[in-house]
Amino acid sequence: MIGYYILDDKKQIVPCSDFSVLSKYLGMSVGRVSHNGVEVSTVFMAMEHGRDNLGRPILFETMVFGGPHDGFQQRYCTWQEAEAGHESMLWVLTEERDRKLDELGI
Description:
With 106 residues, the protein is α+β, with helices and mostly antiparallel strands. Helices cover 28% and strands 29% of the residues. The model has no long low-confidence stretch (mean pLDDT 90).
């Protein structure tokens, strides 16, 4: 059975069956950065998208739109994991950009 969740004031997940409450959480942004035609977006999905190997619901997702990583997707179980994953993808993209600039001597 698919589970639905909201976030409490400490950004911890809480099961929810009230769709009038749930709707305000759908697509809530954890982080969003756009630069030079590439966007990295991390959101709270509110609807369970499977479970991890510890049985925790997967509720957050980072996606990359544009550039060489277009379509990259990573999912997480907690707000903290989602924040870290978002920052990690930004770091990867920055490191690749810096390496290419170095190769070009810029």
